[in-house]
Amino acid sequence: MQILSKDSVTVAVDAVVYYRVSNATVSVTNVEDVNRSTRLLAQTTLRNVLGTKNLSEILSDRENISHFMQVRHDALPRRGLT
User: Fold this and answer.
1) How far is CA 75 from CA 18, 70, 71, 80, in A?
2) CATH dotted code for 2-74
3) Where are the domains of the chain?
4) What are the two backbone dihedrals, phi and then psi, of residue 27, each rounded to the nearest 5 degrees?
5) Taking 90 as the threshold, does the pLDDT of residue 20 lie above it?
């Protein structure tokens, strides 16, 4: 995925998302396609987070970016996933 950083540099980013269905009934009734919606939500969140940082921050601050992504994920409604 290509992301435009705060300092207008195009960055190619790859990511891995791990999730677990904790409540299959809620997951099936609330979301049409869990895999696709989870992937799109992760892409959108990553694009929004990295778009606020310049290239040097992205390269040097991976741990804080990861932590921030986790905090944003935990603040979302569950949808039957963990």
Assistant:
1) 17, 9, 6, 14
2) 3.30.479.30
3) 2-74
4) -60, -45
5) no
